Amino acid sequence: MLFIEKVMKEIWKPYADVYKDKLKEYSKYDEETLKDIIKKGIDNYKYPANTNQIVRMTSMISCGCPHWRGNHALGGCSFCDFFTQTFEVFILAEALKRKNVASYAEMVRYSFQVQRGEKVNPLPIEFITVFDTMNENEFGNIVFNELFSDPPLYNQEIRTLVCETRINSITEEAVLLWKSKARDDLVIESGIEVGNEWLRNHWLNKKITDVEMYQAWDIIHKAGCSVNSDILFGIPGITERQSIELFKYTYKKLTDSNSFVVSPLLCKGNDLQSNIIKHFSEDKEMIRIGVIKKELSGMPHILSLLTAFHELFTEDETLIKKLGLAQRHFSEYYSKIIYRFRKSEYYPLVDSIIQVLTNMCLTQNIDDLRDLYDKIIRTDFYHRYLEQLSLEYGMEQLNETLHIVAKKLSNVYSNEEGFKEFEKELSDFNFQY
Ligand code: SF4
């Protein structure tokens, strides 16, 4: 087991113990009782409002991401915690699925109906998803058939259909099945996160190789469908300078992806970044190298986003055509940024960056980005940011950064042996960017 996998399992251990106990308890409930409890949860959940008239995302309830549920313990990707807020429902859904997968499928469909109603008029792009939509352990054919059974959920054909799944769940059969429900295009969204395979697996615990990624993309493209890749701005335990370079590298490397959905690293719940902040916020070495910052630690600086997009799109303007910003993640990120700067003299600048980033994504035009960047680099706000950056570790010290952070993590979550294993793993990391 890789070092990062052990760390993530340790972080999730308290939840894993609760999960096991509750699953045992819920397994004693009869099917109808489970369905009633799940239905109440679905009815009472506050679904995000939809303001977009082009795309509509409908996330349905499920038993949770199979990668997070693991075989014997919870864990999953190190930057991700989609789970603590609706933890209970995943356990109830898993208990129901084990009793009767048809009833589980009924609940998944019910969660669609509560949000959208029946005989829905589809928007031009309908995004219907769970976490790993093509994985039998979460969705599978029985749920698919239930979702698209009579009476139909939509009153006409869906033009562009989007669903999200892990790369290693993509098969030709599954792609063709989903494609049968899309008149114009099926877009398959998968988390690639970073272009470098070692970082993806040894630091993000993604468990997806480059070979698997290219094979899955090949299947999608041969079926005449489109690839949309989730990529991260910032990964746990690195500096702003490293985040900017890594992001640009990823965006440029994944040329075969038809489009991207960018998410800023968010620091929440049981993800690794939150735990780094929790344990090392006063750690002098982590502060010195720039992994911990006094302000807004845990999330990328908004000027890092501005800088990276500016550098990327002025170098090659056509790259903006692939850009998408993850709606939910960016709303959360902007709220935190706005809160942080609400009383600051720099607030108007922050606000204008948010406006420009949002519009740039919609218009696919970088004129406003260029103008704003030229204005910002003459401000104190930017000069102070540059000063901070000049003290941080850059890409040339990425190995050293990971070594320092892993050493400290091993003191909390692993042991000397575990760290030695990580050192062996790190000796294979030779990142040319
Ligand atoms: S990022 Fe995706 S694959 Fe990874 S744990 Fe989260 S939901 Fe699962």
TrEMBL record:
From the Swiss-Prot or TrEMBL record, give the protein name: Uncharacterized protein
Taxonomically, the superkingdom here is Bacteria
Q: What organism is recorded for this protein?
A: Anaerocolumna cellulosilytica
